[in-house]
Design goal:
244 residues; 5 helices; mainly alpha; rod-shaped
């Protein structure tokens, strides 16, 4: 996920200009982006572990049948019920509950991260606009210094028209940059606010999954009551010491 989305700027995206207002908004946006990616990683890990747990338990059921295979006093009913419980955990419980995380939880999180990525792409136009602003800022600064120097030396200043022309261009460049920057900041602030909606919805899906999965596991393992009793009877029987 980090390679696909990145919790910062993509390598191909130009570095944003130094701008305090933009830096503050970007820092808040980055925090939301990082939290969204962390949530997605945990959801994927949860799915993997639930599947892995089911596989381990189902394998344990197969191992148990293999262990008692060929033994005359094998607890057949207990083994049948135990295998049924493991199948219920590994297959039925997952089929009934994992889609909530895989389709809804992970799907919603990926859509959220994609939306953040698209919002971040709005940064792309700012460096060029800031470059133009910086160009005319330096130009005006240089002309103004020359004017001040001429005035100080009582020299005739011949570049007033040029200065005014560049001041006008500077004003336009600043207006263009600040408008584009403010649009980006508004977009980032919107995503920061919306993040509570996205996170809360996904967290609710996780809570629903946990509740449903636990109920399915409880239902699948009800037969384990009989398994425990059957194994207790076997352990109390003299047959436990017979090898035939």
């Amino acid at each position: 996920i980090n390679a696909e989305y990145g919790d910062r700027l993509q390598p191909s995206m130009p570095k944003p200009p130094k701008d305090k207002l933009l830096e503050v908004a970007l820092a808040r946006f980055d925090e939301v982006d990082s939290q969204a990616q962390g949530l997605l990683a945990k959801l994927k890990t949860a799915c993997h572990l639930v599947k892995q747990l089911g596989d381990v338990f189902q394998s344990l059921g197969d191992d148990a049948n293999g262990f008692y295979s060929g033994w005359r006093y094998a607890p057949k009913a207990a083994l049948r019920d135990f295998s049924q419980a493991q199948y219920g955990i590994a297959v039925h419980a997952q089929a009934q509950t994992l889609p909530v995380i895989q389709r809804d939880g992970i799907g919603s999180c990926e859509a959220w991260i994609l939306r953040l990525k698209e919002s971040r792409a709005r940064l792309q136009g700012l460096p060029e606009l800031h470059k133009v602003l910086d160009h005319y800022s330096k130009k005006v600064e240089g002309l103004q210094k020359d004017k001040d120097k001429a005035v100080k030396n009582a020299s005739k200043w011949k570049e007033e028209e040029r200065l005014m022309r560049n001041l006008d261009k500077l004003g336009n460049a600043r207006a263009n940059y600040e408008f584009a920057r403010d649009v980006v900041i508004d977009e980032f602030e919107k995503e920061v606010i919306l993040s509570k909606v996205d996170y809360s919805k996904i967290l609710g899906m996780v809570a629903h999954f946990q509740r449903q999965w636990s109920l399915e596991v409880v239902s699948a393992t009800e037969v384990n009551v009989a398994v425990v009793e059957g194994l207790k009877e076997l352990l109390a029987s003299p047959n436990i010491h017979k090898d035939e």
